[in-house]
Amino acid sequence: MHKSVMCEEVLDLLNPKKGQTILDCTVGGGGHASMILERILPGRLIGLDQDEEALSVAKDLLSKFDSASYSLIHENYRNIDNIFSRDNIDKVDGVLFDLGISSFQLDNARRGFSIKGDGPLDMRMDKRSSLTAYDLVNRMRVDEIENILRSFGEERYARRIARSIGEIRKRTPIATTGQLREIVERSTPAKYKRYKIHPATRTFLALRIAVNHELEHLEYALEIAIKHLAVGGRICVISFHSLEDRIAKNEFRRFKQSKILKVLTKKPLRPSHRETIENPRSRSAKLRAAEKIKSEDEPENII
Length: 303
Fold this sequence. Notes:
Layout: H1 7-14, E1 21-24, H2 31-40, E2 44-49, H3 52-62, E3 70-74, H4 80-86, E4 92-98, H5 103-106, H6 133-139, H7 142-153, H8 158-171, H9 177-187, H10 201-212, H11 214-227, E5 229-239, H12 242-257, E6 261-263, H13 273-278, E7 286-292
Parallel strand pairs: 1-2, 1-4, 2-3, 4-5
Antiparallel strand pairs: 5-7, 6-7
C-alpha cells in the first residue's frame, strides 16, 4: 500500500474541521484524503488526479465512506477553474497538493517512471496525453534534451548524457527505461555511481517533468487554488525536489506581499527521522503551508 507522506504534519497545518469542504489536488492512492474525510464529515472532499489508475486505488480506499461525502475526478489540477465552474463550486476551506509520485506508479515498470526494471519509455501521468518520454528522447534536438536535463533535473552531466543519446538513437531507437538507464550509466563518471541516488535518477526526473509539464501546471494551479480558498482556509504543498519547492515558496511569498496569505512555515517542514526510516521515499519531502487572510477583491484599509 502506498504510504502518504507527512500525514500528521499535514493534518496539523491544514487543520480540517467538521463540515468543511477540502480540495485534494493530487489524491493519489487516497491516504491523505481518507484521514481528511475522517476529520471533516459531514463535510465534503473533492479529489483530483490526472492518473486514472491512482483514482481507482483511491476509490477502493475511500469506499468505507458515504459516497456523497467525496468526489473523485479524473482531471489535472491546472483545470480547477473549469471543474469548479462545472460543479457550481466557489470556495473551499482547504487545499492540499502532494506532488510526489506514488509507489504504485514507480513499481509498475510499464508506466516507465522507474530506473528499476525495464519498461517502455512512457512517463505519462495522464494516459490521455499523446506526448511520451520516448518522443522526447528520440525526436528532440540534442541541445533541447540537454536543456531539459539541466533545467528540470539539475543534472551536471547533461551535455554528456544528451550527446550519448544523440549518438545511440542514430543506430537504434531508445525505447525502454533499461536502455536509457544504461546510456546514462555509461555517460557519467564512475564516482557518480557511488552516490546515494542512482546516476539516472535526475535524467528520469527531468524527462517526467517535461512530459507532464509539471512545473508550469503547478505554478498556474497554485494561483487558481488560492483564488478559490475561503478566507481562513489553509493550503499545504508537499514537494519532492527543489524546483517544485521554489515555486510553492515564491507563490506563497507573492500572495503574502499582497496581504492575501499568511505563511505558516517560515522554512519547509521535513519528515521525522522515524518516517524516513519507515518510508524511505519520504526523505526528500518538504511541506509548506499558508492561511488565507484576505480576499483578492477586498479593498485595503485606508487610514
